[in-house]
Amino acid sequence: MTMKEANMRLATLAGPNDDIKRLKDMGFEGVQLMLDRWNATELNLSDDEYSEIRRNFYINGLQIVALSGYVDFLDGDPSIRIDQVKKALIAAPKVGAKIVITWGGFKKPGMDIENARKQVIEMLGQIMPTAIDNNVYLAIEMYDQCVIGTPKEIVTAIKTLKTDNLKIVMDPPNVFKQSDLNRIPKAIDEIVDSAEGNIILAHAKDMLFKDGNRELPYAGAGQMDYPAYIKALRRVGYDYFLVVEHVSPETIESAKDFVLKAMQ
């Protein structure tokens, strides 16, 4: 799959029971599908049910860009987490998705980060054959609260496993530091460049620093420089979907318009 199939387009997160027609009427062309909002534990549908979900989005002109398969690799039984992600990778082509998105293992107090990082890489190694067999990419969403969460950490995992089926979901607010607020465009360039060409999908939300804390509101409600973000993505050859997230029914149109303006 090439990421240069068309000009950059807008997607958002949606489930099978959401108002699909409204999303299309608003100008979205794709969705990151959520069969279970926060994790990959509910992927137990029949093939006919998966086909019906795919059909409902298709007839409304929405491409299923990716499937949410979020798990915390460092919470609970590792074999269960591995099986959950494998189930998502098997389900993805049934709904027409080529990407499954997950986390890189959340940090815990007192955790030996280096050992935890090695553990997650080992788990990813057990998952990769399923991704390859199903012709699907497993993409880790950047998040600095994870042991494998920065672009450099994800790239290290990719190189360690020597695989083309492990990729990055670009999402600068998830790793942005308050100390870089005085150099936002440059910091965005550095974040995008550090992915080393492994961006398979890009998310679109914002960041807002208050009293030393980072909030992650919808696009346009924070300090993110979206023209700089779009420019950086295009500079490295990314020309696929931007998934507008962290929205509500009341804010989704505002966020969409904000991102769309930056794309023009």
Describe the structure.
The protein has 264 residues and is of the alpha/beta class. The protein has a single domain (9-263), classed as Divalent-metal-dependent TIM barrel enzymes (TIM Barrel, Alpha-Beta Barrel). It has eight helices and ten strands. It has helices spanning 20-26, 47-59, 78-91, 113-133, 151-161, 184-193, 226-235, 252-263, and strands at 9-14, 30-33, 63-68, 99-102, 137-141, 166-170, 199-204, 208-210, 213-215, 241-244. The strands form two sheets. It has an eight-stranded parallel β-barrel with strand order 1-2-3-4-5-6-7-10, surrounded by six helices. A two-stranded antiparallel ribbon has the order 8-9. Helix 3 runs parallel beside helix 4 (113-133) and helix 6 packs parallel to helix 7 (226-235). The two termini are 25 Å apart.
